[in-house]
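Notebook, bench 3.
Goal today: get a predicted structure for Serine/threonine protein kinase related protein-like from Blastopirellula marina DSM 3645 so we can plan the truncation constructs. The sequence was checked against the plasmid map this morning, with no discrepancies at the termini. Length recorded as 577 residues. Pasting the sequence as submitted so the record is complete.
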Amino acid sequence: MQNKPFLSTVAMFCAALAGAIIATVLPSGQADAEPVAVNAQPKSSEKMEPTKDWPMWGGNSLRNNVPVATNIPQEWDIGRFDRKTGEWDSSKAENIKWVAKLGSQSYGNPVVASGKVFVGTNNSSGLLPRYPSDVDLGVLVCYDEQTGDFLWQHSSEKLSTGRVHDWPLQGICCAPYVEGNRLWFVTSRGEVRCLDVEGFYDGENDGPYKDEKFTEKNEADVIWVFNMMTELGVSQHNMCSCSIAAMGDILFVNTSNGVDESHIVLPSPQAPSFIAMDKNTGEVLWTDRSPGENILHGQWSSPTIAELGGVPQVLFAGGNGWVYSFKADKGQDGKPELLWKFDGNPKESKWVIGGRGTRNNIIATPVVYDGKVYVAVGQDPEHGEGEGHLWCIDPTKRGDVSPQLAMKVEGSSRVPLPHRRIQAVIPEDGEVAVDNPNSAVIWHYAGGDEDGDGRISFEETMHRSIGTVAIKDDILYISDFSGLLHCLDAQTGKRHWTYDMLAAAWGSPLIVDGHVYIGDEDGDVCVFKLSADPDDAEPIDEINMGNSVYSTPIVANGVLYIANKTHLFAIASEEEE
């Protein structure tokens, strides 16, 4: 690849001290919607109301991409685009409601709320007069939900430190969180920002910015800004990207703290990896630096919130390959209460620069389903393919709930070892991995000899993944970076089938209306029947979107949204229209 795209959103892949706010919030600038529910969703197909808005990555804080809708197309044609002008020719398009221009590289997943569609991209389309297309920016764009018309844009200028913190041509890779008339997101510059979803179309400037160039209708109306680099000492690797989650008045953010350009030195080991903030003011409530000096590369996962075992928990995937669960509240004395932690890598796995090793970090977002936590390990896509692991975790246990513990053999005794960045257990040094009696593993999937031929084939292997699982009716789907879509039993981890898409998958599956949708780097979207039957392991259709699909399909208000690198497509049945 010429440039270095990092996250699907999916995903790519964000207090101890009260934070200083660069801009103060006005009293009237508070969100006017109820907090997103954090209780576990039904595990089977119960009668549910159709999904309306899709206000965050994963739809709600459980992060399971399973909206409720009917009459979602399984066939469409995007039409054609003029090579010289870029204009859309809709004469041969089918089931396309509208098309909107994005930049040249788009990884942010669409979010739909308050009659608008929000998506992260770069500035190659030059939608604002003051920022022509040759000016590199991280861009969050707002479109009209019904027409696809451009409304406003938030522009993040590139950091002067360059690619170590803000990689060229990588726009906004996260999805925003929207609640009522407010939107929160993490910029590529390492900031948490709160915006007015109406922009300046409501005739009001809700933030402190009075410069005329910031109050034109197509500009974003910024309420407050918190700079994690200057206020918390964070040094993100290549880019900052986290799709925020919230509970009540609390925002939860992964800071993206990581290594420098050497890929060895961690410039800010004391900086926090996870923070909680007041959504109305931007005040930092607590911080945590649990991954500490063991961060492998970067930290681009997003938090998940759920009530599990009667306790509200916020789940963070750290850049050291561990999952951390904290009590989802305001903490005490600037610190959160750690409930449990889980190492997603085998203890003998080893981190090697450039992706040549077997130890992984976590870029995927944890998903909660039926009171269980599901998460896969992986690496920056630029590191290529490698072995992966998918875990199903019991979140009611406490303490270190990893599968194994690292021990040093000293005579007849075993002494616990602290976690190490490169390799937790070095057998030649007399170290061993022993089963953890407090393990929270419900099941583990890495692949196996499913056909009994005495070997584990490519199709029988779980590879590195930056994708997030989607689960419906106890059927789990996950894509890996080697291009396989895996279909498993969500309760047991038993493999039903795999399908080779023949191209890397950056995004995550969508399950809706009895079907599964997944895009790949070749630009194909495969549509499958929602089924555990191996006879249904072939897609019922495979539709090309014109160029790479790095993001995850979503559905809101009965419309399917898919972004490729350069355009956002609103897809709906023409009969419905």
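The domain at 80-403+439-571 is CATH 2.130.10.10 (Methylamine Dehydrogenase; Chain H). The longest strand covers residues 137-144.
Flagging this for group meeting.
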